[in-house]
Design brief:
2 copies of one chain form a homodimer. With 365 residues, the first copy, chain A, is α/β, with parallel strands linked by helices. The first copy, chain A, contains 12 helices and 12 strands. In chain A, the strands form 2 sheets. In chain A, strands 2-1-3-4-5-11 form a 6-stranded parallel sheet, sandwiched between helices. A 6-stranded mixed sheet of chain A has the order 7-6-8-9-10-12, sandwiched between helices. The structure holds a DNA duplex (16 and 16 nucleotides). Chains A, B: GO terms for molecular function: DNA binding.
DNA sequence: CTGAAAGCGCTAACAA
DNA sequence: TTGTTAGCGCTTTCAG
């Protein structure tokens, strides 16, 4: 490959510093985009390294002439700043850790997507971490995260180990917890109340004249809380209540359509007369729909079904699925803003946000 | 908290500066897990920093006694190594960038999941990047990625801009492309042939006695190639071929169930006699199933349907969906191994891997 | 097996 | 506005 950028150098006319004077011992193996550093750029532009740095980071603080020279030099060398070095020197890594139980399954997709996008637009890069719903990996993961000195950590539906929480807190890294309304957040919080959801759904179904309620959900903690609140409220309203817990295959997997089918079968065996069912995910609800269909059970006629998550496909099902909608985009944006603001040194006036939820009423209930 | 180290600096007291108050100016605002550095640990353990470093990184290279002392010191101080600093010094960031069009949608979930998990187990952290199917963001994203000097980049279904490819190549960072079999990969490759899939599905349906083929797919490039190959092979086998292209709402979004419903409707209007349909995603196929059901079209009796992706739910649909399965886990593991091996300085014997695919035959076709 | 010295590439403090 | 100096926290190199 011919690289014709050897001695032409038509730009740096004033300071011929070709003198390889007392070359200090250089370290080996560089992976550095051609080995070009800020110093090379500065030299080519005929300015001090710090000036080149300013031209790139705070262009307003530099004369237009210098700015242009530096830009040219960057262009000609193909220089890409080493953000690791910059981060070390400035103590700002521009890295944000996002931790979820798993990226498999539709639940946290919207949040991860929004965070990645919003933070990227602000110059941050997202590091992804998966805990797998277990505590065991939390500690190792935390160590790996803190070691990178991120400018923020977003926790979604996890981090229960008390020790881990303490560790994070004492690291001084801004933390945003999401997907729940913890009574005692580590730092900042963007969430919603699982209990309120359960209660509201119970009231909604009761209001529709249903009297024999049932719930179907996985055994993750938040799902359980929705289910419990639903059951309690339904009972308080005078409804009968049955429930089935979906067996989670592997503690890190989300609920599945198959579990929905099986779940309804189990439920019907337990209590054939149920007329209202709250599923802790839309996938479960879809399974229930299919199973009901194959059994000739009419939805919503015989059985009203409410899902959770309002997945993209739910509006197009037959019948169209009524579901609880969580605005993952809003959560992601708010969380991103919290971290960006913190990094900018702003005071967060209200570090706890309840984004709420809504019941999207369609045909299935 | 008695810290018996009142400015005596027991370790480096060999240069008595004339002025006693020689304390060097310290930089401000540290976010450093309590501000504990390797030097603090080393001092507490009574060894040199480099020895403490060795105790942590290559425990076999220090005496058991020293190892214990350092471990104790780490324990007592709560020290967490600064991986940014380590990365800068050693030129190994232990960061791997994973780039996908979007994490929304089920397509790349398995790969991202596997990569994150496998790499984490090897001490690497995944940085997530989303291009949004557009080229526009590719350049900025690439700059952000290269700037972090990752030890590897995994590209999934993207990076078309020639300039971007060149940039990556010249950065010297190991690159693994996935989800396709490019004729001229940048570096390493783990993929499968979209053309072969199209052809095989056509043959399969022809073998089942179907003669009026149709395809339904999104307009992303690979989907198109599957569809085209399918159409060509079907025609070559003497089948009639119709096709419909799903309108993508926003170029970055994956195909949806709703599009499947609409797609079938359009297709039937075009050609009511089709008896075999290849959908470029399982979600599309599900939509087709539902639409067919509501129109009283029997599957597979009247219409055979084949999906793509073999999503988790496909096996539980009614009828159970026949689909093309891609082993995302295998792709992720292979890609991770490539990068880990490269980082270890190993020669990659065969840098191009075809993981193939399989047609999972169920009831729908 | 252990240590001193010298940076990795960049930016915060000061100064000019 | 620009430059000088001194690190950021760690690891490489080269000696003991």
């Amino acid at each position: 490959m011919s690289q014709p950028q050897d001695s032409s150098d038509s730009l740096r006319a004033d300071k011929p510093a070709d003198e390889p004077s007392d070359e200090p011992r250089r370290r080996s193996g560089r992976k550095n985009a051609g080995g070009i550093t800020l110093r090379d750029v500065a030299q080519l532009a005929g300015v001090a390294p710090i000036t080149a740095s300013r031209a790139l980071n705070t262009p307003a603080a530099v004369s237009p002439k210098v700015l242009q020279k530096v830009k040219d030099a960057v262009e000609r060398t193909g220089y890409v700043p080493n953000l690791l070095a910059g981060g070390l020197a400035s103590n700002k890594s521009r890295l944000v850790a996002v931790v979820v139980p798993t990226v498999i399954g539709p639940v946290f997709q919207e949040i991860v997507h929004t965070l990645t996008e919003t933070l990227a637009a602000a110059g941050y890069q997202v590091m992804l971490g998966q805990t797998g719903y277990e505590n065991s990996r939390e500690d190792a993961l935390l160590e790996a995260i803190i070691g990178r000195r991120p400018d923020g950590v977003v926790l979604t539906g996890i981090m229960r180990s008390q020790q881990a929480r303490k560790r994070l807190l004492s690291s001084g890294i801004p933390v945003v917890e999401t997907w729940d309304l913890t009574p005692t957040p580590i730092d900042m919080l963007v969430g919603f109340s699982h209990e309120n959801i359960g209660r509201e759904v119970a009231r909604y179904l009761h209001g529709k004249g249903r009297r024999a309620a049932a719930v179907l959900g996985g055994k993750d903690e938040r799902s359980q809380r929705r289910m419990l609140a639903f059951a309690q409220e339904a009972a308080a309203l005078g409804m009968t209540v049955d429930g089935a817990q979906v067996p989670m295959h592997g503690v890190s997997a989300p609920t599945t359509l198959g579990q929905g089918r099986k779940g309804l079968a189990d439920l019907l065996q337990q209590q054939p007369n149920i007329d209202a069912l709250f599923c802790s995910s839309d996938l479960l609800a879809l399974g229930v729909t299919i199973e009901a269909q194959s059994r000739g059970i009419g939805i919503p006629g015989q059985l009203a079904v409410v899902g959770f998550g309002d997945l993209e496909f739910s509006r197009d099902l037959e019948p169209r699925l009524t579901s609880v909608r969580i605005d993952g985009t809003a959560i992601g944006q708010r969380a991103a803003r919290f971290i960006i603001d913190r990094a900018a040194g702003l005071e967060i006036a209200e570090p706890i946000v309840d984004v709420g939820f809504s019941i999207v009423v369609r045909d299935s209930a």
